[in-house]
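The pair is quoted verbatim below.
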Amino acid sequence: MLQTTNYLELTFWAKSQNESFARSAVGAFFSQLNPTLEELDDLKTAVSEAVTNCIVHAYNSQQKGEIVVCCQLHPNAITVQIVDFGKGIENVEQAIQPFYSTCTTGDRSGMGFTVMQAFCDDVKVESGDGQTKVTLHKTISLEN
């Protein structure tokens, strides 16, 4: 178990304009660890993907519903949990496959979870009991 050195929790509505807020807030919080610009951008991109998934898929872009973002800083890493209380993911294993999307309009590429996995050291997805939780973990280089 990693030692937590600081904690942040944000709750906001599933409005598209709040995606950039979540991205910026998590990035500012992560900056306390002095990550490289690449590490910072990677985490912010992963958070954007996770929050966008909540807005578009969990709440069907209805611009309502809550998203909770919880961040825990560790001595050289961050863990970010993004939680929604929307419709859930029927089959998580299928949903995390590249190019899989429930979007029928062709507006989505189905690459959100793949992007999160590419930019974080670990990504976990859990869905059930009225909530979906995506946990992102990013370790920073100690050479900063």
Remarks:
- The CA atoms of residues 19 and 97 lie 23 Å apart.
- DSSP finds four helices and five strands in the chain.
- Residues 37-58 form the longest helix (22 residues).
- The helical segments are 18-30, 37-58, 92-95, 112-119.
